Amino acid sequence: VQRCRIVAAAEVEQSYIMIKPDGVQRGLVGEIISRFEKKGFLLKGLKLFQCSKDLAQEHYKDLKDKPFFPTLIDYITSGPVVCMIQIFVILSCKAWEGVGVVASARKLIGATNPLQAEPGTIRGDLAVQTGRNVVHGSDSPDNGKREIALWFKEGELCEWESVQTPWLIE
Ligand code: IDP
Ligand code: MG
User: Which ligand is nearest to the CA of 143?
Assistant: First the structure.
């Protein structure tokens, strides 16, 4: 019985995930990507990228009045980042209803302050300070869309199906 439906790409919730410059410098790229891979998310885009101040400011525009904004922009532009798009392949499967990739990725990432992030989360296991918290994840599906449009061009996205899907979802 086919209980799951592979939904059209446009319907699928997508999260923008980014390994920040400290994650790249500390050799954590493989470790961090691996956590999303092992969870069962599908990677739809991936690149190493040096971003401009303009792009960093646009990405974090909601925080522009915070006292730490200038150092945040310096941090994010201080070296290459790894940009990723993570999706769930199937949204309309009963077991997954109401669970989106955006919220689920935020759980894997953990709290903004790594000292408060639970062990088992990326920040909880791999970082100690808010200003060096190794990874970014979209905080809402709308911001996921906004961020993916900022960081990726159309030709950089891959539509593909993973052979793992039937082993991830009954
Ligand atoms: P989030 O990354 O968990 O969504 P936000 O509040 O959106 O957290 O903040 C964006 C980023 O800004 C954080 O991940 C962190 O790198 C930085 N940041 C947030 N608060 C502080 C702070 O108090 N001091 C220094 N950097 C901060
Ligand atoms: Mg945020």
Answer: 2
> ipTM surpassing 0.95, yes or no?
yes
pLDDT tens, residue by residue, 59-97: 999 999 999 999 999 999 999 999 999 887 654 454 444
DSSP string covering 39-98: HT-EEEEEEEE---HHHHHHHTGGGTTSTTHHHHHHHHTSS-EEEEEEE-S-SSSGGGTT
Whole-number Å distance between alpha carbons of 144 and 94: 23
* Of the candidates 10, 4, 21, 14, the residue with the CA atom closest to the CA atom of residue 90: 4
Tell me whether residue 136 is one of the annotated catalytic residues. yes
For tokens 């730490």, name the residue.
Answer: 68
Q: Which of 35, 44, 59, 136 is catalytic?
A: 136
Say whether 114 sits in a helix, a strand or coil: coil
Distance between CA atoms of 143 and 150, rounded to whole angstroms? 10
Residues in contact with ligand 1 by the CB-under-6-Å rule are 63, 68, 72, 112, 130-131, 133, 136, 139
Which pTM does this prediction carry? Answer: 0.92
Query: Which one, of 89, 93, 129, 96, lies nearest residue 111 by Cα?
Result: 129
